[in-house]
Design goal:
CATH superfamily: NAD(P)-binding Rossmann-like Domain
CATH topology: Rossmann fold
Structural class: alpha/beta
Distance between the termini: 40 Å
Largest sheet: 7 strands, parallel
Strand content: 15-25%
Helix content: 40-55%
CATH architecture: 3-Layer(aba) Sandwich
Radius of gyration: 17 Å
Number of strands: 7
Order of helices and strands: EHEHEHEHEHEHHHE
Shape: globular
CATH class: Alpha Beta
Length: 253
């Protein structure tokens, strides 16, 4: 019988895109559950403020995940500061919103580089360490765009769909070494980015809520607690899956 099935005491998480939005929501829940966190992003002032809000168990490193050759150095620096990494959350992302025929190859490749190639580079850097220790959890922040078609975000949809293939293949390779790999697919969550997306467009908000069985937008902590669960002993027999946190959008009509 597990004594503290949902505790993350003794765990240390590296969270990309951790200074704002979903990344910060995940970090808040991790800290509340007993974990140390290292926030990664490109804006030092944002990361510093976020870490200050989280308290003494939070640290930060300014880093551009698209510097692929530096993924190993990022992992080294994080472990030098806080000890062995036991959780990696691949959350950093970007998007281009325009029709597919107007999306340039450069824009398409840029979005895939941030989401897919950079996430793989960092995963590849931390996996040997986790496998050697026989313990680790890797999470990918997927999306509703991983599950069904959303217009005008073709590069984002391709990237988020690729996450599911990464999760399934990685899980088959590393789960026997004590490393679990999963994804979370958030629905429409009230983050600053989402607020800018629907600002001045009440009709769009109405349409989203109309197809959401729970009738409300999500909160970053809704995603954060799901991340805690998947990283905790309570989910010790769960790997290679995608957990939707969407208020029922993906099963609604």
């Amino acid at each position: 019988m597990l004594q503290e099935p949902f505790s993350l005491k003794g765990e240390t998480a590296l969270i990309t895109g951790g200074g704002t939005g979903l990344g910060f929501g995940i970090a808040q829940c991790f800290v509340q559950s007993g974990a140390r966190v290292v926030l990664v992003g490109r804006r030092p002032h944002v990361l510093q403020e976020a870490a200050h809000r989280l308290g003494d168990t939070a640290d930060w490193i300014a880093h551009d995940v698209c510097q692929l050759d530096a993924a190993g150095r990022l992992a080294d620096e994080a472990e030098r500061r806080v000890g062995p990494l036991t959780i990696l959350v691949n959350n950093a992302g970007t998007s281009v919103k325009k029709p597919a025929v107007e999306t340039s190859l450069e824009e398409f490749e840029s979005v895939l580089r941030v989401h897919v190639t950079a996430a793989f580079a960092l995963t590849r850097a931390v996996l040997p360490r986790m496998m050697e220790r026989g313990h680790g959890n890797i999470l990918f922040t997927a999306s509703m765009a991983s599950l069904f078609g959303i217009p005008y975000v073709v590069a984002y949809s391709a990237a988020k769909s690729a996450y599911l293939g990464l999760v399934r293949t990685l899980a088959t390779e590393v789960s026997s070494h004590g490393v679990r790999v999963n994804a979370i697919a958030p629905g429409w969550i009230e983050t600053p980015l989402f607020g800018r997306t629907v600002a001045g467009d009440p009709e769009r908000s109405r349409r989203i809520l109309q197809r959401t069985p729970m009738g409300r937008f999500g909160d970053p902590e809704d995603v954060g607690w799901a991340a805690v669960y998947l990283s905790s002993p309570a989910a010790r027999f769960i790997t290679g899956t995608v957990l939707t946190v969407d208020g029922g959008v993906s099963i609604g009509f």
